[in-house]
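ingest -> validate -> predict -> emit
validate: passed (alphabet ok, no gaps, 185 aa)
predict: started
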Amino acid sequence: MLNLIIGTNRPGSNSRKVALQVQSIYEEMKVPLQVSDLAELPPEIFNPASYAEKPAAFAPFSEAVLKADGLVVVTPEYNGSVPGILKYFIDMLKFPESFIGRPVCFVGVSAGGWGALRPIEQLQQIFSYRDGYVFPGHVFLPRINDLLDDSGRLTDADLLKRLRRQAEDYTSFVEKLKQTRLRPR
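emit:
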């Protein structure tokens, strides 16, 4: 099972629109996938006391990461960086077991010309620091407002092809890691 993390809580975000298309690609491939939408984080997680003791309502988010064979992170770029909510989510997860030996891949979404290159670089550092396996086949979606139609669907056939190829290659990457037993369980 993979866990797809929508890396923002912004209502109506383009990242969520893209993530829904990524989700449908994995579903078409018959790859089990659970979605963790950060817009659905329980409000009590933002209480400073949550650092010491996580609220029970956060358990489904934490368990989705811990049970996942791999993570797919769709992240926007906010002010040249990772959205604060995504970094906070990462900080709230169990350490070190949440990412150690866990494969992760990234899709970047931005209004600018680099397709969230900077936040993906930052996330690579975080996941590498936490001993995750970073899949090298990132997909960057620059100038996202020009790539979505009125219903929020990607219109560029080449980008859709790249997302599908990423999903295929990433699924293979996850399976190979499972077979080599490089992933602790």
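The chain has a mean pLDDT of 95.
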